[in-house]
Sequence to fold (104 residues):
Amino acid sequence: MLVCLLFAEEGINHECKLCNQMFDSPAKLLCHLIEHSFEGMGGTFKCPVCFTVFVQANKLQQHIFAVHGQEDKIYDCSQCPQKFFFQTELQVGSVIMSSLSACR
Fold:
């Protein structure tokens, strides 16, 4: 799966396709995408699965990885079998998939 491979590579720059900010790991990019998901929501981050509220995006990210599994992902990609916890992840995945399709 191309999207999975793009998010899983360590040691390369990972660009946010929503704002073009660069990150040195996929985990930092994911935390940033969580922040995009909650822009304008008063600085709190709510788990999309169990609705637990956090004051830091990285704490929500840690919670999701520790408590929730693949089956809890709620956003389905229409172009591949990939699923996501956050709509911003889906948007970035869609941008990557459409740019890959345009290159063919």
